[in-house]
Amino acid sequence: MSEIVVTLPDGSELSVEEGATVADVAYEIGPGLGKDTVAGVVDGELVDKADPVHDGAQVVIVTDQSDEYLRVLRHTAAHVFAQALQRLHPEAKLAIGPPTDEGFYYDVTDVDLDADDLEAIEDEMREILEADLPVERELRSREEALELYEDNPYKRDILEDEAAGDEELSFYVQGDFEDLCKGPHVESTGEIGAVKLLNISSAYWRGDEDNETLTRVYGTAFESEKDLQDHMELRAEAEERDHRKLGKEMDLFSIPEVTGPGLPLYHPNGKKILSELSGFAESLNVDAGYEPVETPHLFRTELWKQSGHYDNYVDDMFLLDVNDEEYGLKPMNCPGHATIFDQHSWSYRDLPVRYFEDGKVYRKEQRGELSGLSRVWSFTIDDGHLFCRPEQIEAEIRQVMDSIYEVLDTFGLEAHVALATRPEKSVGSDEIWEQSETQLRAVLDNQNVDYDLEPGDGAFYGPKIDFAFEDALGRKWDGPTVQVDFNMPERFDLTYTGEDNEEHRPVMIHRALYGSYERFFMVLIEHFDGKFPLWLAPEQVRVLPISDDQLGYAHRVKNELGDFRVSVEDRSWTLGRKIREAQDDNVPYMLVVGEDEAEAGTISVRDRQEREEQDVAVEAFREHLDAEYGEKRLEPDFLAD
RNA sequence: GCCGGUGUAGCUCAGCUGGCAGAGCGAUUCCUUCGUAAGGAAUAGGCCGAGGGUUCAAAUCCCUCCACCGGCUCCA
Asked: A68-238 architecture in CATH?
C-alpha cells in the first residue's frame, strides 16, 4: 500500500495510506480528534469526513468547535426544511439547498407557500430536531439516482452537470427523507438546537433569468436557542439603524413617489452633511494637485458613441430626443473630463493633469434593484480623472491610495480591497489589458495590501482596484475606486508632446475617494447610527434655556459660537423634555442656560453621551469646538476625562 | 424584469368574516416657566397608493397599474 502526504494547518506534514479519508487523517492525528470529526476542509473546500484525501492536499479537520461547523449544521437544517416541506406538501419538488453566511436556503417548486405555511413547516422541523434522526451517507449508482429523480429536472440537471463524471453518488438519509447531496452534514438532526424560517422569495434556476423561477425559502439555524435569539437581536439592531429609517427621522433626505424611483431629495439637514463631505474631498483633492471642473448633465450621443458608452452601456442610459437629435444623460463623468483635456495641446512637462468634479450621473438600474440610497437612478460621484505619462502611473495610483486611506481613517471605516480584472464585454487590446492589470497589482503588492482577486469584474474600459465598506448588516458596499484606462485616451485621440517632440498617448486614471456620495452617505448613517461626529452633525449645538426668561441669553450664547450650527430651543417645555428631544435628535452638545448661567455669563455643557459640566466659560467651549471640528474627531470629547 | 410581502393622518400603526375611518406621537392654541431623557387641556388634520369591477353598501372582495420592503452571487 503506498503512502501519500497531506499538509495540516500548522504547516506540518502527515503521511497516510493512499485512499485515506478525512476521518482517517483525523484519527492519525489523535483518537480524540478522530471521534470529534464532523467534516473536513480539503484545499479550501468543505467536504464530508468520509471523502478521500489526495497526495499533497491541505487538510483542516472540522469539529463542533470549528467556524465551519455552523455551516455544516445549517446545511443539515436545509435538509430538515426539505423533509418537513415534503411531509406537509408531498407535491413539492426540491432543487438545491445550500448553507449561506447567515443561514441556509432551499429552492423548491410546484408548491405555493405563504407565511402561515412557513410556521407550520417550522413546527414540523422542530419535531424532526426532537426526533434526533441519525443522518447517514449512502452511495447510490447513477441508474438508481436517475430513476429516483425521474420527475425532478433540477436534480437530473445536477446529475448531468456537477456530478457528470461520478458513477457513485452520495445521498444523505435521515428518517423518511433522502437527498442527493455532496455534504457534509452533522451526525443527527438533534445537533441542531434552533431553527427559524425567515422569508420566501424567488430565484432563477442557477441564477439565470432565462431559466424558470423557483420558490426560495430562507432560514437560519444555530446550535442553541440562545444563539438564535442573539442573531435575531442583531438583525433588529441593524434594522434600527437602517439609513432609510434614520434618514426620515433625522429629516436628512426623502425619495417621494412623485419624483420618481431612485431619485432622492436632500433636505437641509442632509445637505449640510453632504457639503461637509464635499468640502473634505475637495481639500484632499486640491492638496493632491487636482483642479475643480464642471460639466453638464446632458451630452449629445455623439460623445457617448466616441467614448464607447453607447455601445457598452446604452441599456443603462437615459436617452432624450431634442429637436430630432439624440442626447443622453451622463452615466459617467469621464468623457466630459477627457473632452476638457482635449481642448488644449499638452507638453510632457504639464502631466499629470488632474481634474475633479462632484459629478451627478444617471443610470437606469432595474427597478427591483433600487433601494434607499444604496441603489439609485441619480447619484453624485466625487469623480477625479488624471492624465499622465505611462511611467507616472504607479506614483499616481499610490498617491490616490494614500488619499483613500486618509478617508477611511477619518471616518473610522474598515474596507476590503479587491482587484477587478477584464470582463467579457470590454474594449481594448489584450496587451493593453495585461499591462494595466500588472501595474495595479504592482502597487498593491508593493504596499502590502491584502486584496481579493475578482476576475471579470472590471469596467469595460479597464481594470480597477475597488474598496468595499462593511455596513451594520455586514453587507459590503462599493466605495472608493481606482481605475486605469488605456482605452478612453485612444477613443478621444488624446495626446501630449514628449521630450522627443513626438506625439504620445497619455494614460487616464479614474478615481473616487467616496465612490458615490449617496452610498457613502448611507454607509455613514448606518456606521454612526445617526450620531454623526461634530464636523458632520447637521445641528452641532443646541442651547436649552431653563425657562423663557433666558431666551435672550440663549441667543447671545448662540451668537458667540459664530459659524457653528447652533439652534436655540424656544418651545416652552420642561428642561427634561428639551434634553430628551435633543438626545433623540443626536445633537452632539446641549448647552443648558438658566438664571445662574445668565448672571455669571457661563454655560452648563451636556453631551449626547450624557456627560455634563457646569460653570463653563463660553470662550473655552468655543475654542474646544474649533479644535474638535478642525480635527474631525469622531466623538464629542469636551467632557471626556 | 421575476417571486413573496406591504401601501390607512406629517410619523408609527390598529381597523377580523363588507355596514358612519381610529389610536399614539407630532402640529396648532391656551394654561404651566420648570435645573439634566416625555407637565396639563383643547383643536385641527384623511381621494384608506391610482384606475376599473362586484354589491343596496367597499379601506375591506375581484382585476389592472404604481410605489416601497425582502430576495433573485456564494455550485448536490
From this structure: 2-Layer Sandwich (3.30)
- Of A74, A361, A349, A37, the C-alpha closest to A219 is A74
Q: For the segment A101-124, what is each residue's pLDDT rounded down to a tens digit?
A: 788 888 888 877 766 677 788 888
Which chain B positions have some atom within 7 A of a protein CB?
1-5, 11-12, 27, 31-39, 66-76
Q: Which nucleotide is nearest to A372 (CA to C1')?
A: B68
Residue A59 has pLDDT above 80, yes or no: no
Give the nucleotide nearest to A94 (CA→C1'): B76
Nearest residue to B66 (CA, C1')? Answer: A257
Assign a CATH topology to domain A253-291+342-527: BirA Bifunctional Protein; domain 2 (3.30.930)
| Partners of A484 in beta bridges | A509
Partner residues linked to A173 by β-bridges: A136, A178
Phi, psi at residue A469, to the nearest 5°?
Answer: -80, 160
Report the distance from CA of residue A321 to the C1' of nucleotide B51 in Å, as an integer. Answer: 30
Tell me if A510 is assigned to a ligand binding site. yes
CATH code of A541-630, in short, is 3.40.50.800
Q: pLDDT, tens digit, for every residue of A192-237?
A: 888 888 877 778 888 777 777 788 888 888 888 888 888 887 777 7
Q: Is-contact A329 A298, C-beta < 8 A?
A: yes
Strand pairing of A265-266 and A464-470?
unpaired
Q: Is the bond leading into A390 cis (omega within 30 degrees of zero)?
A: no
Note the CATH architecture for domain A3-62: Roll (3.10)
pTM: 0.85
User: What is d(CA A218, CA A36) in angstroms, rounded to the nearest whole number?
Assistant: 29
